[in-house]
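Batch job 17 of 40 flagged for manual review because the log was empty.
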Amino acid sequence: MATELCRDAVKEHLDDAVNANAGLLLRRGMTCYDDGKVDGDKNKGGTAKQRLIGRIAGIGPSKGYRLAFARWQRATADATRFSSFSVPLVGRLYIGVDRDNALETGITVQHVWGMPMIPGSALKGLARAAARERLAGKPDLVDWLFGDDTRDESALEAGAVIFHDAWWVPAGNAKPFVAEVVTPHHGEYYKGTGAPATDFDSPIPAAQIAAQGEFHFTLEGEQTWRGVAEALLRFGLAELGIGGKRSSGYGYFECP
């Protein structure tokens, strides 16, 4: 028996929304909880969670988002201040999986437009990780580029380059979201109940949501330092990956 999660008046509007904000559906779109049981109606199919994720995967960028993306490109077109580049994912991206919501699976989206994004803080962390590998033995250079975060809060220093949030590129009829499935085989073992992990455990498919397509990256700062930061970021995107499940091939970009 399903448990209703919102009032009928609200549910009616959520069900009828054609091009709803994906962020809104992620937070409020779960209108009922069916205890993970598959709906017997062949016209519906799957659990409530699977149906909602399938609906989100069908959402494309709105006209407003396309205009906002074009405005962002114009605002950062000054080559004396900004460096920008767009690169596609090799496969798919899990970003913000641990965000709390009713779906029990998260993805980072822009609050206003509901489209996928990669936070600038995550990109800065990725570039710093690349710097530790590519600029080993040059700690002063790394501290100048990214800021010294080893001091107390009163003495923190800003880095030489600003890493802006990465925007999803609205190209053609591309859709930003895609339905995924993660299938843990040893549920009781992972819960820490003391049960052993054996070949007799039953797999439990869990519906997930990921991002696909191309992202637009923007750096701001003095030109020489921007060049170094961009090279490190490109290396990180191509070789280290970003987000979750990187060991399974997620989060890598076609980035020369």
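Reviewer: the log was empty due to a logging misconfiguration, but the result itself is present. The first helix runs from residue 8 to 16. Unflagging and moving on to job 18.
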